[in-house]
Protein 1
Amino acid sequence: MKPSICNIMLPATLLSLALIALPAAVARADDKHANDRDAHSAASLSSRATAFGQPGNRKKVDRTIAIDMNDMMRFGPSELTIRQGETIRFVIRNRGKILHEMVLGTMEDFKAHGETMKQHPGMEHEDAYMTHVKPGKKETMLWQFTKLGEFHYACLIPGHFEAGMIGKITVKKG
């Protein structure tokens, strides 16, 4: 039996249509995965509690504290007293000419994070308790201090912490 033109053209046409539709299907799948990643990141940031507190709610800010950073490897102020349960809006301004960051945490956290920063100095931060601040710019950070104790803020860019770029936070009973 001799193949007809229909028997040859129909499979070729279906294959062509499938190849035309494939990029659109892949793009939709990529968009869905990107949205899933964004939702996962937002969820992890909004609900992650740490040894020193949790991300703050912008509708429940108790105080705003201005923090300055400079190329002398110092924060100003270098010590803060906060009441347990307070949500703080930090307005962090880099008055220097090089990149700095502010990371909230414990000394143990800083040691571990500092080692990671040495291995990956350009790494981006996605957690609510840390932010990079470009020279001459400012960033904000919201944090609720739910635990009593002594905590810190530091710049963990290699060499900055070691040069003394650290501040102390004392969280007292409200």
Protein 2
Amino acid sequence: MCQQLTPEALRAMSGVSRIPRPVDESAFLSAVKRHTPAVLRGRRRAGFVLLDVVVDANGEVRDVTAVSSPSGPAPEAVRVRGDGSGGEAGERLMAGSSDPVLGPAAEAALREVKFTPAVRDGVAVPFTLRMSIRFGA
């Protein structure tokens, strides 16, 4: 379950008043489903991958990096962080596991998705966020 942050907590934690989100949630879910690795399709298995995603001021995904260890369990913390211009990192906990095929699948899915840009002082700004994508069951 996603925990909602107050605008004040978000600004204090990341330096922005709005973090990037998919413009169309159903398009995001469709992209994830379309890129679900074959090893997870039709099975009762699931996995998630933790990613650093760079979203530019136009809402375009510019870079995606899997931060989960492909040889072991994924880290347990999901962290939202600013772009280095005044925000401090904060953390929310999430449990799960990762598989090395999930990083490339998540990157392919995210490159198809348009995001709202982050906003600081009323201006759209580039932002790096850490997010997870869950594939499968």
Protein 3
Amino acid sequence: MSKFQSLRGMNDCLPTDTPVWQYLESTVSRLFARYGYREIRVPLVESTDLFKRSIGEVTDIVEKEMYTFKDLSDESITLRPEGTACVVRACQQHGLLHNQTQKVWYHGPMFRYEKPQKGRQRQFHQMGVEIFGFQGPDIDAEIIMMTARLWKELGLSDVVTLQLNSLGTLEARNAYKAKLVEFLNGIRDQLDEDSQRRIDSNPLRVLDSKDKKTQALLADAPDLLDHLDEESAEHFAQLRALLDAAGIHYQVNSRLVRGLDYYGKTVFEWVTEALGAQGAVCAGGRYDGLVQQLGGRATPGVGFAMGEERLVLLLQELNLVPDSVNQQVDVFIAYELECLQGAMLLAENLREQLGDLRIQTHFGGGSFKSQMKKADKSGAAVALLIGETEQANSSVTVKWLREDKPQQTVATSELLKLLQSL
């Protein structure tokens, strides 16, 4: 066994797994482009204060989960635990929010120190979008429609459910918090320990408690949707009307609050039970006050993030990965040792003419029989055999590995046309 092992919760992604990740990421990135989103890339490390001011100092992320340390300049820096604050910082720093709208997307690793479990690691990966400058519910509806289209393209529509809520404006939410705290104080001694602590620090998070006894006690709690301001209630009604018209099914969940302080008005989660206990695979909402909170001008914002680990698990466990994804080779070239030069030149010529064709040339010698075992194991659709006879006649023997077709010998000048059908 190697002396060195990966850190707990920070996993390697091996060549046997990367094709599924690439399939997911390419599907998502193509979809985002179809909706007019452009990619933005931000650093893995940011100032710790960025996350304290955006996420909230009394959230679990900031209190318990961030990887924070001092650098050589004695500055407190943090491995990013989420992407929204980083994108806001980048857009603000580079003047992308002044009198203009932006629709951007990002992907990459995030870091949170929590107990590793299925689909959730300490280094995890997200893909998400952030939109700035749009106030209406129409953009909220578009990103939800976009995610619904993604589930359809991935084959996941039947195993995910949309949960929807509105948190209202800050003023309305503060008024609701006062009534909620009054209710919670009346049952404080019966709540779980985390919920008792949150009453004084972040009472809305009590609504999102995973403790079954606490959830039962919350049945009589004041309902957030009954305390919305008029503007937020109208925004939420218009959003629901747009989703209804588009045939997007959803469940209104008035206890959905999200774990980050910057959300207001629309919040949503796509959840699944296909991996065991119910868990979110995509979540987001509006954060109209965040840009101003981080020192910029008041700018409406909305976005979401998807957990790649959970989506990869869903695709694998539900057998939704197309066979072509795991096929890494289209053509395998086998040859007699004295034909090595011709085989390599043929491979390069095919790569030049058919740029997307995946070609693996055998190396290391060996009989045709042993080479054909490797060809079959590679997953290639076709094996090209070059022996002395083929080389002398400027031809190649074509052996079909996945179809019941007879072996044939063709001139190298005709090979290009034959392989274009792969």
